[in-house]
Every structure is written in structure tokens, then in C-alpha cells.
Amino acid sequence: MKGKTTMSQLNERVIVVTGGAGGMGLAIARALKERGARVIATDLREPQDPIDGVEFARHDITSERDWDTVIASAIDRFGRLDGLVNNAGWGELAPFQQTETEMFEKTLRVNQIGTFLGMKKAAEAMKDKGGAIVNIASCVSMRGVAGQFAYSTSKWAVRGMTKCAALDLAAHGIRVNSVNPGPTDTPMIAAFPGEMRAAVQSMIPMGRFGDPREIAATTAFLLSDDASYITGAEVEVDGGFFA
Ligand SMILES: NC(=O)c1ccc[n+]([C@@H]2O[C@H](COP(=O)([O-])OP(=O)(O)OC[C@H]3O[C@@H](n4cnc5c(N)ncnc54)[C@H](O)[C@@H]3O)[C@@H](O)[C@H]2O)c1
């Protein structure tokens, strides 16, 4: 039965969202703000469409020094940190045989080391009073995927780090979960050639790409007290793609 729905609330929670200049990160920042959070969106590049009331900071997630600055300025500005969304990511599609070492290292540096540094710095800031971290992995972390060796394996690492960090941080009241988006309508997917987009769409049981707001709503839920007993979990938001 369809009825009125309610949103998980994030009143006054202070949350950093990486990769917040566009695509999914922008949708996540907007959704968190709508639910009452104080949001700091960060990215290498300027936001496409800045959101009123969301602060923005330039930030390279592969730089430990940048992380120190971002977390310190969130605490200076708002007095504490309650949450982190490790959303920034990078990928180039290539099969194993055409995966050059430099490209593999860059993919791991952004997707794995960037996520590691974010969890490490946020956990240090949240260790006394708890908090929540959501890592945006991908449905390609759920099984082997042809033609995207570096990207897929880096997202397997994000999924694995989520579970290991969740175990180590549980006693500090810090929950760590991952969201695995399926093909979602963002600039990353828009950049695919037309025939490739059509082929991917035809493989989605629900017959359409995800809307970034659907990834954002799941992320907001995992950051909220509605998910207070969920840690080390992964949620597929993929229209049944990898069911
Ligand atoms: N769009 C999809 O279909 C899809 C599916 C599964 C997972 N994902 C994941 O969701 C996340 C968001 O993807 P998107 O589709 O919005 O992609 P996007 O390319 O639009 O956004 C990624 C953002 O990350 C930023 N970024 C890249 N490297 C960075 C760095 N070193 N430091 C800081 N920021 C950096 C980029 O500037 C960009 O704004 C990514 O982690 C991606 O892997 C996307």
C-alpha cells in the first residue's frame, strides 16, 4: 500500500562528503542537508551547482595533509565531526591485459588509499563520541567483472576495508557501511558511448539507470540513528543488477 513516507533525520550532524562537486556526491550533499545535517562537500574541482548552506572545500583525497586540513576546518567551524561519506572515485575501463601499472596505481590511490585516509582521519576525530562512515563502493565489488580490472578490484578493496574497519571501530561507537550503486545517471555514465549505455541499461532488471537521489537516500539512512545497529554491512542500490 502506498502511503506517506518519512526521511531518516540527521539534525545538526556534521558530515563531510567527498567528490561533492557533481554527480552522486552533489546529490548526497543535498539529501543530507535536506535531512538537517551540516554538510561540508569537498572535491578536486569546483562544484557544478553549489547548494545553499552546504560548505565547499578543495580537497585531494589522496593527500593526507589535505585530509588533516578538511577535518580540522570542519571541527573549527562546527565543533565536531559526526560522519563521513567517502564518495569520490575514479576509474578507467580496461581489461586486465591492457591495465598499465601507472593506471592501476592511480586507481588504487584514489579509490582505496583515498578511502582509507578518510576513514582513518574521521575515526580519529570521532573516536570519543562515535559517528558513522559510509563508503561508496560499487556493484562491481560483488563479483568479477570483465573489462574493468583496476576499477572493479579497487572497489572490492573498498568493500573489504569497510568490513575490517567496522570490526575494529565498533567498540568506539563508529559504524562503517558501504553502498554499492549500480549504473547510476551521473556524468560518469553519461560519458559512456551511446551503444554501451544502451547495452548496460538492457542488463538492469528494473530497466532504468539509478537516480543519484536513490543512492543519496540509502546513504542518509545509513548515517542516521535509524541504522544504529547496522555496521560492516553493504547495501546494493542497483535495480537488481547483481541480484
Ligand atoms: N555512476 C555510476 O554508475 C556509479 C556506479 C557505481 C559506483 N559509483 C561510484 O560512485 C562515486 C561517485 O561517482 P559519480 O558517478 O558521481 O562520478 P563522478 O565522476 O561524477 O564523480 C566523482 C567525483 O570524484 C572527484 N574526485 C576524483 N578524484 C578525486 C580526488 N583525488 N580527490 C577528490 N575528489 C576526487 C571528481 O572530481 C568527481 O567530482 C564514485 O566512487 C564511483 O566510483 C558510480
**CATH H-level superfamily title:** NAD(P)-binding Rossmann-like Domain
Which ligands are bound? nicotinamide-adenine-dinucleotide
Relative strand content:
15-25%
At CATH's second level, what is the architecture? Answer: 3-Layer(aba) Sandwich
Q: Report the span from N to C terminus.
A: 24 Å
Order of helix and strand elements from N to C terminus = EHEEHEHEHEHHHE
Provide a count of the helices.
7
Strand arrangement across the biggest beta sheet:
3-2-1-4-5-6-7
Domain count: the total is: 1
Multimerization status: single chain
CA-atom Rg in angstroms:
17 Å
Name of the CATH first level: Alpha Beta
Mean pLDDT: 95
Low-confidence segments: none
The major sheet is characterized as: 7 strands, parallel
> Roughly how much helix do the residues carry, as a percent range?
40-55%
Q: Please tell me what the overall shape is.
A: globular
Structural class: alpha/beta
Number of separate strands:
7
